[in-house]
Amino acid sequence: MTELLHPDTAGIARAADLLRGGGLVAFATETVYGLGADAGNARAVAAIFAAKERPHFNPLISHYPDAEAAFAHVEANTVARRLAEAFWPGPLTLVLPRRADCPVALLAGAGLETLAVRVPAHADARALLRAVGRPVVAPSANRSGAVSPTTAAHVLAGLSGRIDAVLDSGPCPVGVESTVLDPTGPRPRLLRPGGVTREAIVALVGKIARGMPPAAEAEHALSSPGMMASHYAPALPVRLKARGAAADEALLAFGPAPAGAGVVFQLSVSGDLAEAAANLFAGLRALDEEGDRRGLRRIAVMPVPEEGLGLAINDRLQRAAAPRDQERRH
Ligand code: TXA
Ligand code: MG
Question: How many CB atoms lie within 10 A of CB 24?
């Protein structure tokens, strides 16, 4: 059975005990709920993949209470240190070469030479990481292929009975996953847009590249299916840049919804991107359920501007709308 814990002293102590004992505990970060395991315990890491039904070759992010702890496991260059100083704790993940003595299980990094590290800002996550006293690997706490959870109820909807506990800290304030950045090349490379905006990163380090270098792309697609097109898909098909909804569509609205739309979930009536990001995954889930109940065939999504957090929102929406690839079979 999955324990529902409150993030008070006793709840955090219980969650930390479970993690140190090799258990799986879902906890809130500022972005989405993560499914945590002791990063050094290969069996616990394997249990994450089993609970999520996630392909084994997808590498996980290792979470730390502070930058010093993170950089003890990976080799940080000057750019990485500047980024960490500016954005940690916060929704930024850095992909860096593992140190030779890095104790994080190789399985967690899917056998790659690099490790993704992050220092989350959520107070409960930081309290938990300090109480555990070890790094915690945590993918988003959803079944593979589903949208990421931003409440404890979302976590339980997918993983109840499959994990030891959920620490219920309420809704996640940012609502989209962390920005994943590789700062080792001549230009830092944006691997996944997320909670720290591209503009904020560019303002600090100058021009950045986007996506994988072509040669690495094919290889990486195998090792990192999180980058695959349809990773964040709801069950109903998704239609983007919709001006309104047809009779058989539910509408994900951004700004005032057109008159006559039936089933509507409002991301932000005022067009606020931070509010929209925080509501995004809950909205996709709600429309999926309501659409299913009413026999609707599709989710229509109003356009979201490609700036600030809109980059991460549009990235997740494009994945939700992409043709379903192999990962859907896992
Ligand atoms: O906000 C977040 O990042 C959340 C919270 C829980 O921290 N975690 C999360 O984890 O979104 P996950 O596993 O759902 O996504 C991790 C992403 C994937 O796109 C994965 O491919 C990429 O990070 N990644 C992890 N390790 C990597 C590595 N060594 N090289 C390149 N990409 C990596
Ligand atoms: Mg995920």
Answer: 26
The two structure tokens encoding residue 329 = 């079979």
In the chain, the domains with their CATH numbers are 3-219 (3.90.870.10), 238-329 (3.40.50.11030)
CA neighbor of 50 nearest in space, from 198, 196, 161, 213: 161
CB atoms within 10 A of CB 328: 13
Pocket of ligand 1 (CB under 6 A): 29, 31-32, 34, 58-61, 91, 93, 95, 109, 112, 114-116, 118, 138-140, 177-178, 180, 191-192, 224, 226-227
Assess whether pLDDT exceeds 60 at residue 228.
no
Ligand 1 atom closest to the Cα of residue 180 is 23
> Taking every pair of C-alpha atoms in the chain, what is the biggest distance, in angstroms?
61
CA–CA gap between residue 230 and residue 228 (Å, rounded): 6
Tell me the pLDDT tens digit for each residue of 170-222.
Answer: 999 999 999 999 999 999 999 999 999 999 999 999 999 987 755 555 555 55
Distance (angstroms) between ligand 1 centre and the Cα of 327 equals 16
Question: Could you read off the pLDDT of 115-173 as tens digits, one per residue?
Answer: 999 999 999 999 999 999 999 999 999 998 899 999 999 999 999 999 999 999 999 99
Question: For a pLDDT cut of 70, what percent of the chain falls above it?
Answer: 91
User: Which ligand is nearest the CA of 173, by number?
Assistant: 1
Ligand nearest to the CA of 233: 2
